[in-house]
Amino acid sequence: MKAEHKGIIFHHGLLFIFTFFWGANFILAEIALREMMPISFSVSRFAMGGVTMLSILYLQGYYDSVKNGTPFTFLPRVEKQDWTRLLIISVAGATLAPWLGIEGLKLTHGARASLWLALGPALSTGMGYLFSTEKMGRYGFIGILLAVLGTLTLTYDGLRIGESYWMGDILLCLALSMAVLELHLIKPLASKYGAISMVSMRTLLGGSLYLLIASPSLVQEAWLSFGFWTWFAILAGGGIGVGFGQWIKVRALRSLGPTQVVIYGNLVPLTAILIAWLSIGENPTHYELVAGALIITGAIFIQVIDTVHAASTSETDQESLSLISGSSRE
């Protein structure tokens, strides 16, 4: 077997394993919140993930610079006119998004939270289309429609008598909006200063603010009384799931391409529902299952089918242009 094929199989295997770990992270958080305040757990896991991710990013950037013979600056000098955008990105992505997300999870449950986050591709594509930063074909519009139907279904389920998930749903949607906003705002800075540098600075700035906000809660926690699974959620969930897991995703993007990688991301809500059912006996409602199917199918239409169709259309157009050019020369 060729080394290239072994690499492809290796990355598929890692993504498959981490799909379950990412799904389990939602359930681990739900368990940890039985012993910790939401913001304390969130900032603790964020700190573990941030330290791990920054360490890996530094080593990756240094290795790439040595390999390519190019200079490497981990934290570049940001120009004055870019600081406002960087601060907005840091607060939105590394302070508000994790804070609102964990507060929303506390008011719902892990599997349901994973369904809301699966709405990310649809929200990002729609925002990019409105801001003219991304293009979208007809399959993308179908995906948006399916995602909207899934959102309405999930919203209706949260408003039903006896459920009372509506406040948690709102917070999760706000957290998702902050995360998507960050992705769109960071693009020009990543192009100018490098993705590794911008992700690192955003994590340091936003994480420091988040730690400052959470410090009163951290002091009040009875750290020595926490059970095994709470510590596992903090250390392994942060270091492996958040930090190392993101590096695995970036490595897989280089080897497999975005189309194959995003499929695993779309499977995370399914693994979260399965793990919640097997571990803590949490049964999803019929509305959650229907909403999840609509949202995940919509994400596949947006991220996979529309992308593949756009690529094939582009190739067809290029072939047609080549034929026309050839005919005109003849």
Question: What is this structure's SSE topology?
Answer:
Layout: H1 3-32, H2 38-68, H3 83-107, H4 110-117, H5 120-130, H6 138-159, H7 166-193, H8 195-220, H9 228-256, H10 258-279, H11 286-329
Helix pairs in contact: 1-4, 1-9, 1-10, 2-3, 2-8, 2-9, 3-7, 3-8, 4-10, 5-6, 5-7, 5-11, 6-11, 7-8, 9-10, 10-11
Alpha-beta classification: mainly alpha
Low-confidence spans: 316-330
Cα radius of gyration in angstroms = 21 Å
The overall strand count is: 0
Total tally of structural domains? 1
Question: How many separate helices?
Answer: 11
Strand content: under 5%
Mean pLDDT, nearest integer? 80
Give, in order, the helices and strands. Answer: HHHHHHHHHHH
Estimate percent helicity: over 70%
Shape: globular
User: How would a textbook summarize the main sheet?
Assistant: none
First-to-last CA distance: 46 Å
